[in-house]
Design brief:
The chain has about 550 residues and is α+β, with helices and mostly antiparallel strands. Helix content is about 20%, strand content about 30%.
């Protein structure tokens, strides 16, 4: 293969006005260029490729072809930086391409089309720096990894922002990124002076970005401290860096855009300590200064075929002679052997309980401690950004949706879900039916009540039934009386009649009938009862 890295510069001078006046969805593309025998292309949408990013210049790096030694394709992981030289807009990514025509690029608002019209420029220049980090064939077998060597585990980085960049900080829109150069081919700074989305607009955000990993390493656990020197802003976190988790930075409450721009100079610092390396299997790898004159990070075992080297090899397993405390225990009761008599002994259950249960208890305690530590780390005010998306608008990283969805993978699961929904539908249908029935009944009662009120207003007689006890006997008979209104000659009706104005002066008559002793039952709960023999209404019953 050819060189594993390359730079391509795409200049738009003759088509500058066409670029600036382009409509939404109009695409510009550079010629193809090779890096490590892979063929690449720069894609640009001057006015956005969708309605959502209208007014933003969208840039993407597109994979056009594989090298000849990968006839069936494969995966290529690259570290690339896209930048506009005239406006200093820049974004660095680590992305994996899985097929031809895959495209990855920066998010919207990193470069606005209006920025180009404000600039006094006669051309626009885009530059892409591409470095191949890892190549896998169609079967997932790694055929190449960038030979990055780490000679130390502590890094002190400083980014002194240049004056012309500070001037652009003054007018930075929300979503615009600026970046430093690379440090040890491993790290770089990223700064969004005015935030990178609507949620953190007005906040000066600083991130440290991973640019590569050493061979056979899947992630690094690091302790990171970030500083803005002039304002004495400090922030620290412990975080695992990998190709799926590439950066870390402080949150919006640390440093405001207004406070940052008060200073004539801007200096950022970072202190990074690599605590642990993890190999491709997830096992820990350690720094072993005695194993190499260069003091490089070394793994505990070989990676070529999984075999273990000889006793004197730098890749040999350490502490190989150590064994379980139970299996190597010595006891005065049992000479030179297991105190419980080994597997054939009647005391084997004691061996099991004392050995493995003790081991399991220790392991459980370690896991609990690790979980508590992770929980504590997750509560620290750290933040990761993802300003990358593909050409179709999909984020290049997996993002969790706030709204969970039901995922049904098998037919029985779907069938059970349908049954559950049918039951829920029946319950809801029953509830709705009951509400409708009650509603109709209430409508009837309201209509009857309105009719009674109208009858009272018109001075019509309204029969009502009541029951009064006979105080002179032992309650052997009941008397039912009907009354139509209050006494005449200005007698007041009392109670509800006061609600109807001059109704108390209406001429009325009172009649009474004595019937056989029997108890009468009110009909439909809408009867009126009199209050004594004077014919005055005492009120109506409630429903």
């Amino acid at each position: 293969m050819n060189a594993r890295s390359g730079i391509h510069v795409w200049s738009l001078q003759k088509r500058l006005q066409e670029f600036i006046n382009a409509d939404n969805g109009v695409k510009f593309q550079s010629g193809g260029f090779p890096v490590a025998d892979f063929k690449w292309q720069i894609i640009a949408y001057p006015n956005g490729n969708r309605f959502e990013n209208y007014g933003s210049v969208m840039l993407y790096l597109k994979l056009l072809g594989y090298p000849s030694d990968l006839p069936y394709g494969g995966q290529v992981t690259v570290n690339f930086r896209i930048q506009c030289r005239e406006t200093h807009s820049s974004s660095t990514f680590i992305e994996t391409y899985n097929r031809i025509n895959d495209s990855k690029g920066w998010s919207s608002r990193n470069l606005l089309l209006s920025d180009l019209t404000k600039e006094s420029i006669n051309k626009i220049t885009f530059q892409v720096d591409v470095k191949i980090l890892k190549i896998s064939n169609q079967n997932g077998r790694i055929t190449y990894e960038a030979p990055l060597k780490i000679y130390k585990n502590r890094f002190n980085l400083k980014w002194i922002v240049q004056d012309d960049t500070i001037a652009r900080f003054q007018y930075a829109n929300n979503g615009k990124w600026f970046e430093s150069g690379n440090y040890s081919n491993l790290w770089c700074f990223k700064c969004a002076p005015n935030g990178y989305n609507d949620k953190n607009e007005g906040a000066a955000l600083l991130f440290i970005q991973l640019c590569a990993l050493p061979p056979n390493i899947s992630k690094m656990k690091c302790k990171v401290k970030l500083f803005h020197v002039e304002s004495d802003t400090k922030w620290s976190v412990k975080k695992d860096f990998g190709y799926d988790n590439k950066n870390a930075g402080w949150t919006k409450n640390k440093l405001s855009y207004e406070k940052l721009m008060k200073y004539d100079t801007i200096t950022f610092r970072a202190e990074i300590e690599i605590l642990t390396l993890f190999d491709l299997k997830g096992d820990k790898s350690v720094i072993n200064p005695q194993s190499s004159a260069n003091y490089k990070y070394q793994a505990k075992k070989a990676y070529d075929d999984g075999s273990i080297a000889g006793k004197n090899s730098k890749f040999s397993i350490k502490n190989r002679g150590n064994r379980s405390a139970t299996t190597t225990a010595k006891s005065s009761a049992t000479k030179g052997g297991n105190p419980y008599g080994g597997y054939g002994s009647d005391n084997y259950h004691l061996y099991f309980n004392d050995g493995y249960k003790k081991y399991n208890a220790q392991k459980a305690a370690q896991q609990k401690q690790m979980q508590q530590q992770r929980s504590h780390e997750s509560k620290e005010d750290s933040e990761s950004e993802n300003d990358s998306e593909d050409e179709n608008g999909q984020s290049s990283e997996n993002e969790e949706d706030d709204d969970s969805e039901i995922e049904l993978e098998t037919f029985p699961e779907m069938k059970d879900q349908v049954k559950f929904l049918q039951k829920e539908y029946k319950k809801l249908h029953k509830i709705v039916s009951n509400l409708k029935t009650k509603s109709k009944s209430n409508d009837k009662l309201i209509a009857k009540l309105q009719a009674d009120i109208n009858a009272l207003k018109n001075g019509l007689s309204l029969p009502s039934t009541y029951v009064t006890p006979n105080n002179t006997t032992s309650s052997q008979s009941n008397t039912t009386k009907s009354a139509s209104s209050a006494a005449s000659n200005g007698g007041t009706g009392g109670g509800i009649l006061d609600l109807f104005g001059d109704m108390g002066s209406a001429p009325t008559t009172t009649t009474a009938q004595t019937t056989q002793p029997q108890k009468t039952k009110p009909q439909n709960n809408d009867t009126f009862t009199t209050n004594g023999d004077d014919g005055g209404f005492g009120g109506w019953t409630t429903f």
